[in-house]
Design brief:
The complex is a heterodimer of chains A (about 250) and B (about 325). Chain A has nine helices and twelve strands. Chain A has about 250 residues and is α/β, with parallel strands linked by helices. In chain A, β11 and β12 form a beta hairpin. Chain B contains 13 helices and four strands. Classes of the chains: A alpha/beta (about 250), B mainly alpha (about 325).
């Protein structure tokens, strides 16, 4: 399974959100998309998930465009988690997770499994509007876990922004597990330290340009990230000899 | 189905049945005394027809309201947000005025006027709300309000132009009232349309559930939103139009019935759609029962006044409880 993005441009009126982005990634990998605010991360993810038509350029998934597929067909190949989910009406978290099976067919076992994975099984009957931001985010992740087909594409826009440390670890682990089962996982991540730990491949955007792309260990260095984000960064080594990115 | 749901369904159907039987039996003597008695065969049609009409109109408005609340992502949406009732009102007014000026009676003039007026308003709302990705909910609410206001202005111009006598009969139409005579064939056809619309929306229940997610998420789980919105617009419009044809503009039933169903059933849309039909029917038959009890000495009130009055308070309550919480 291969994702190929070629000469992708997205314009909103006079504003250019993405400019001539070309990149590719293979199944079984975690790709982290990084960049300052308004650098085009969410737009890139929406294009990859087939939710937005580009002004020019293409996104090909195994050689074919996801935009042309009926949403029902697309849902079996791509699962999407937005930055913050919206749910109208009176739904429980379990019901929201069940919606992930809309196009594929009900599967209570998959829904229970997904809820258990994100540590929500015992609170699945909480009403969406009464749940905390972290619970909502975990429920959205559970929804795509119930929806995904191994070997497909998993696109997540800042999936850990509302989570505590333990749940960040849980979600990181589950994303790794999905990648091991052949999924291509693409996630926009704000936390650079988390991205360094999580990513196999990194795409770094600035003002709509893809300024860095490649193996994360090569691309994510203090000098390159410091330059993109406009801050001084350096490596620090802990007692165990592990390197961490710090802002001195 | 959980046992709680079965219990709620039984209660709903029993209450609906009780309202219907009360409507058939409630009698007011010439001296103004109320009693419950089975009517003589000669008079039964005068009670059966309004009762059946109330069930059909209430059900139609309830289901239409549910469809529109999902379509417009707005818990305060109701069939009148489409500009349909004011369009129909303008049509009825125009047909009355033409008949008066020509000095002729137009057979089915009011019905034809209502259908044409409603259709023109709907087509205008549809065309003006269409964006690149299909119907846009926010634009649609605004366009619906604007079309209503324009039709309202048209109604006032026509009212200003017609003689006093005609103004009275038109104002009565605007209040909304259940007919006491109507052929059973006609009621049967309109009832069939409402039943078919209800079943269609219930059939689409899982899509309605998924459409409660944001646009991107609904699309990503597999809903073709432009197509779903178009279908919801068509079915909800037809159902609301049936309501207007039978009873004129009955306010608030379309807003309250879906909320009632949600409060009672806490469920998925397949059940909520049918629930809205039952609650809508119950509300309108119930309001018609209450209407029989009120005697202001000027004849019985049109049922639309009751639904507006009571509905207004419930609407305020919903507003105060906060959006999306009920």
């Amino acid at each position: 399974m291969r994702l190929h993005i070629s000469s992708l441009c997205v314009r909103y009126g006079k504003l250019t959100a993405l400019r001539d982005v070309t990149a590719s990634a293979d199944g079984g990998k975690i790709v982290c998309v990084l960049g300052p605010n308004a650098s085009g991360k969410s737009t890139l993810l929406r294009c990859i998930a087939g939710l937005q038509s580009p002004s020019s350029g293409k996104v090909l998934f195994d050689g074919s465009s996801l935009l042309r597929l009926h949403p029902r067909e697309r849902a079996s190949k791509v699962a999407w988690v937005p930055r913050s989910s919206e749910v109208g009406g009176r739904f429980t978290l379990r019901h929201v997770v069940e919606l992930g099976r809309y196009a594929i067919g009900p599967s209570p076992a998959r829904v229970d499994d997904a809820l258990a994975t994100v540590d929500l099984l015992d609170r699945a009957d909480t009403i969406w509007h009464e749940a905390s931001a972290g619970m909502k985010q975990r429920a959205s992740i559970a929804r795509v876990l119930a929806q995904r087909t191994p070997g497909g594409l998993l696109v997540l826009d800042e999936p850990t922004s509302a989570l505590d440390l333990r749940h960040i670890r849980i979600v990181s682990d589950v994303l790794r597990k999905c990648a091991l089962e052949g999924d291509l996982v693409i996630a926009a991540i704000h936390d650079v330290a988390l991205a360094i730990n999580l990513a196999d491949t990194a795409f770094v955007l600035r003002n709509g340009d893809l300024v860095l792309a490649g193996q994360s260990s090569a691309v994510l260095s203090p000098s390159s990230l410091g330059d993109v984000f406009g801050v001084d960064l350096a490596w620090a080594t802990d007692d165990g000899g592990k390197r961490h990115l710090v802002s001195p | 189905m959980r046992s709680k749901h079965i219990f709620v369904w039984i209660v709903l159907l029993v209450v609906l049945g009780a309202c219907c039987i009360t409507r058939l039996m409630l009698t007011r003597s010439t001296s103004g005394e109320l009693s419950l008695a089975w009517p003589e065969t000669t008079y039964i049609d005068y009670r059966l027809v309004p009762m059946l009409a109330a069930i059909i109109v209430g059900g139609a408005l309830g289901v239409s309201g549910m469809g529109l609340q999902v379509l417009l992502r707005n818990p305060l949406a109701s069939p009148w947000i489409l500009g349909l009732s004011s369009g129909a009102g303008l049509g009825v007014m125009a047909s009355m005025m033409i008949a008066h000026q020509r000095g002729i009676g137009i057979p089915e003039g009011e019905t034809i006027g209502a259908v044409v007026g409603a259709l023109v308003a709907l087509v205008a709302v549809y065309l003006l709300s269409r964006g690149r990705g299909g119907l846009d909910p926010v634009t649609m609410v605004l366009v619906g309000v604007v079309v209503s206001v324009i039709c309202g202005a048209g109604i006032m111009v026509l009212q200003h132009l017609v003689p006093m006598g005609l103004r009275g009969s038109f104002t009565t139409w605007l209040m909304g009232s259940l007919p006491e005579t109507m052929s059973y064939t006609r009621l049967g056809i309109l009832g069939g349309v409402v039943a078919a619309g209800t079943l269609l929306l219930a059939w689409w229940g899982p899509s309605l559930d998924a459409a409660c997610l944001s646009d991107d998420e609904a699309t990503s789980v597999g809903v073709h939103l432009p197509s779903l919105r178009f279908r919801l617009f068509c079915v909800s419009s037809v159902l609301a139009a049936v309501g207007v044809i039978i009873a004129g503009p009955i306010a608030f039933v379309g807003l309250i019935a879906p909320h009632g169903a949600r409060l009672l059933l806490h469920s998925n849309h397949r059940m909520l759609v049918v629930g809205s039909a039952v609650v809508g029917a119950m509300l309108l038959v119930g309001a018609d029962d209450v209407r029989q009890l009120v005697d202001l000495g000027t004849g019985r009130l049109p049922v639309g006044i009751l639904t507006s009055g009571l509905g207004g308070f419930v609407f305020l309550l919903l507003l105060l409880r906060g959006r999306g919480k009920v």
